[in-house]
Amino acid sequence: MEKTIKIDLRSDTVTSPSEEMREAIYKAKVGDHGYGEDETTVELEEYCAKYFGKEAGLFMASGTMSDQVSIRCWTQAGDEIILDGSYHINYFQAGPSTDLGKILLNTCHSKDGVLRVEDIEKAICNKIRGNLFSRPALISLENTINGYGGTIFPIENLKEVYSFAQKQGIPLHMDGERFLNACIATNIPVKEYALYTDSISTSFSKGLGAPFGSIIMGSKNFIEKAKKYRRWYGGSLHQSGFMAAAALFAIKNNVQRLEVDHHNAKLLGSLLKSSKYLNINLETVQTNMVMLDTRDIGLTAKEFVSLCEKKGVFLYPWHTYTVRAVTHLGISEKDVCLAASKIREVCEGITKRKVG
Ligand SMILES: Cc1ncc(COP(=O)(O)O)c(C=O)c1O
Q1: Residue 276, Ramachandran bin (φ over 0: left; ψ between -120 and 50: alpha; else beta)
Q2: 32 in the same domain as 119
């Protein structure tokens, strides 16, 4: 491995707190939040609730905890959640969703991760319904859609699904860990976008660059219920203000700069596409991710990722032939150009090997 280079594009969770963020953590006013007395955590929850136009918020240890607590609040054992099979709640969290939530994942297989009313209707009608049977209790969406390369769940589709959900009396949860990426990319105000959800999460430790945490937001009733399950799941932290201070810093300072990550992802996508070795659909490069298809160079994602690592470029093998690259606040335009040239070298090496 060329030791001098390490460009880590595996995820936007790999960032390290800036000096200013560390300063905010150091100076945080804390109390025991087991008694609801950590003023920085309270400030964060109130700030975010207002920012998203919801009545209340609850600070969580991780995105997984946000999702699992939300599922627990909205459902009972034996209920169903309707969602796309690619969403994190199914793709990575099928174990906790079914074990902790004791629910069934009724997965749709939409063409692009954007669930439409027809997909949801089909999922509802795919088995017998009524008081004696399993109940579709929650519709869960994702924005941005990780499995499709950080694509945007368009607000028009969201409005349609939300209006359908309301007619059916089914709540809508938004796994919005990268929701702010969608807001920045579309220029849609956060409150307007979040209006069409009953509960919504967002992460501080992905694009926003904090070391810890996520938050769920919704009605006061929902959050009161969520407090109980957060405690049950071990997420009731004591001096959480140190982590909340980093999160507050992140949401106050690092949202608008997501446009830099989006620019860098587009640059990476177009540099790699122009090298013609890898199949890349630039239409899906809408926020901070690029998905590479390794089939044309005859390698699996894992094989390709391990060759790139030897050149100092770290990528994530998403699926058998799909590799994910994510830009974030630790990645500059210069890093992107260097990463693209190293990836190109890997592709050239493979092509030569095949020909020779
Ligand atoms: C859409 C989505 N939801 C939930 C999670 C889980 O977040 P965490 O890793 O903080 O548990 C992730 C993680 O990448 C995600 O992308």
Answers
A1: left
A2: yes
Q: Say if ligand 1 is within 6 A of residue 288 CB.
A: no
Domain with residue 50: its CATH number is: 3.40.640.10
The Cα 239–Cα 165 span in angstroms is 38
Distance 70 CA to ligand 1 centre (A): 14
Number of Cβ within 10 Å of residue 191's Cβ equals 13
Pocket of ligand 1 contains residue 67 by CB under 6 Å: yes
**Do 285 and 247 reside in the same domain of the chain?**
no
Same domain, 262 and 198: no
Count of domains observed in the chain: 2
Q: Is the CB of 84 under 6 A from ligand 1?
A: no
Give me the helix-helix angle, 258-274 and 179-186, nearest 10°: 80
Note whether residue 7 is domain-resident.
no
- Return per-residue pLDDT of the chain as tens, 356 residues: 545 899 999 999 999 999 999 999 999 999 999 999 999 999 999 999 999 999 999 999 999 999 999 999 999 999 999 999 999 999 999 999 999 999 999 999 999 999 999 999 999 999 999 999 999 999 999 999 999 999 999 999 999 999 999 999 999 999 999 999 999 999 999 999 999 999 999 999 999 999 999 999 999 999 999 999 999 999 999 999 999 999 999 999 999 999 999 999 999 999 999 988 898 999 999 999 999 999 989 999 999 999 999 999 999 999 999 999 999 999 999 999 999 999 999 999 886 656 54
Q: Are residues 271 and 231 in the same domain?
A: no
**In 3-state terms, what secondary structure has residue 138?**
strand
248 shares a domain with 265: no
Cβ contacts of residue 162 below 8 Å, gap of 6+? 172, 196, 197
Domain assignment of residue 151, given as a range = 19-253
64 Cβ below 6 A of ligand 1: yes
Same domain? 200 vs 299: no
